[in-house]
Each structure stands twice: as C-alpha cells, then as structure tokens.
Specification:
Blueprint (H helix, E strand, L loop, with lengths): L6 H19 L5 E6 L2 E6 L2 H15 L13 H10 L10 H15 L1 E8 L4 E8 H13 L6 H13 L6 H49 E5 L4 E4 L8 H16 L17
Antiparallel strand pairs: 1-2, 3-4, 5-6
C-alpha cells in the first residue's frame, strides 16, 4: 500500500493506536492495582480477563496491518522511532517515553530459563527463550487453536532444536499445548503485573511527551455551555490523521487510567 502521510501524521496515528490498545488492557474493568509504593501488584477480575490480557498483548507485540494508512511496524518499533525523532518534543518531554520503551524492549528480549515436561512428546527440556516468544505462545494459543498457530509451533521447533530436542513440526504443534499450560498459568500469571507496569509506564511516557502539545492546542470556545477544541499543528493535513490527532489530544487531556505504579520485587525475580 502506498503511504502518503508525513512523519508527524504517521506519529499521531501510531500513538493513538498504542494508547487505545494499552487502555483496553490496563483498566479498572479488567484488573485491580493493589498495594502502594514499591509493593504493588495487579489482580485480574477473572480468568477470562487474564486471557484477554494475553491476547491483546500479542497484538501489541505484533506488526500493524499492512493495509493500514501507515507503514506496517511493531508497535514498540514505532514507539522507538517516535522517541528517536519526535515531532512534538518540548524541552526533552519525550525522554520518559524513550526510557519506558527501552526498558520494556530490553525486558522482552531477555532470555527466560524455563523447565518443561512435555508429556505429548515424552520430553523433559530446559528452554532458554526470549520472554517475548513465551508471551507470543501464551497469547496466540489463548486466541487460536492449534491450526491457527502453526507459525508459533514452527518457531518453537527451532527453540527445541537449540535445546537439543529434535522434533517434527507436528510434534512441536502437540508440545505447544503442553508449553501453553505452563506458560499461561505460571510464567504469564507471574509476570502480568510487571507487564502492566511497563504498559502503564508507556502510557505515562506518551502523556508527558504530549502534554505541552495538548496545552498549546487546547482552545476554549466559551459560550453558555463552555466547550473546547484542538488547534491542529501546521504539519497535519491528512483527514484521517486529523481525526486521530483530535482523539489523541482527548486522551492526553483526560490522562492515563492508572497513576504510575511499581510492582513489588517479589514478582520480578523469577524467569
């Protein structure tokens, strides 16, 4: 697809998509944030809410649709581009976003060491596997059955080979369910609070980055029932980008759902 938006317009579209996706995952309907200070943790309202969180997280870690009006990128890659070449930075306001994206990216790319008993193929294996891969397995199998997650099984086959276990693709598909049971109920549940902290931190990074632009743009319209609108920056001409800009500024004006929080270290030492 040919993309006609300029850099500022693309940035606005990506940032709105990120905020709306994170707000669908980190909100009062899905979870409670318990505790205070550096001893906070997240509790999901139900098992179904935790499963939805895993599914939405896979979307966040995946590329955007190639048919979208902006180039297909993983959301974190798009955020790294924004942090490197920001269109709305005022006196370093983008720094919090840059830090939040960098920390989450490093955490996702770090290897986790997990022992698995795989009864479907009668194998005991210790996998050294990036956290993002474990989360992809969790989310994809939460969303799809085995016939819609063959690509994940193929990647798992490669990781099993690195661990010294040679399997056929169909065996990797069978083992995928065994691994999912461990990942979803153990690894995913253990790290959900930390992931929510990272996502909330990205929301606050975007908030701090765009707060000066929101202040500049906000225009009171007065009248008996006072209302307001947003003045578009000169670099935004595309009609879709204008709509996204307005929605983005509404989110910035209202602010993130949760205050910043730090999850207890008791939920950060394993895997």
């Amino acid at each position: 697809m040919k993309h006609s938006m300029n850099k500022m317009e693309e940035e606005v579209v990506y940032l709105l998509a990120v905020i709306e996706l994170i707000r669908s995952m980190v909100n009062y309907e899905i979870m409670d944030v318990l505790g205070e200070g550096d001893h906070t943790n997240v509790m999901f309202k139900t098992m179904t809410h935790r499963q939805f969180f895993a599914i939405a997280l896979v979307d966040f870690l995946s590329p955007t649709d190639p048919k979208a009006p902006v180039p297909s990128k993983r959301y974190l890659a798009a955020l790294r581009t924004v942090a490197k070449e920001p269109s709305f930075d005022v006196n370093g306001s983008v720094q919090n976003l840059k830090d939040a994206v960098g920390k989450f990216t490093d955490w996702l790319n770090a290897e986790a060491v997990v022992d698995f008993w795989l009864p479907s193929i009668s194998q005991q294996v210790e996998l050294r596997i990036p956290r993002y891969m474990l989360l992809k397995i969790d989310g994809n199998i939460s969303k799809h059955n085995f016939l819609r997650s063959v690509d994940v099984a193929s990647e798992l086959q490669s990781h099993l080979k690195k661990a010294g276990v040679q399997v056929e693709l169909y065996q990797a598909m069978l083992a995928q369910q065994d691994i999912y049971d461990i990942i979803h109920d153990d690894f995913g549940a253990y790290h959900a609070s930390t992931i929510a902290e990272f996502l909330n931190g990205i929301c606050w990074g975007i908030q701090n980055y765009l707060a000066p632009e929101c202040s500049r743009s906000l225009t009171s319209e007065g009248g008996d029932l006072p209302s307001y609108s947003f003045q578009y920056p000169s670099g935004i001409e595309d009609p879709y980008a204008k709509t996204c800009y307005r929605s983005l500024m509404y989110h910035i004006r209202s602010g993130p759902i949760f205050d910043p929080f730090t999850v207890t270290y008791h939920l950060k030492g394993k895997y």
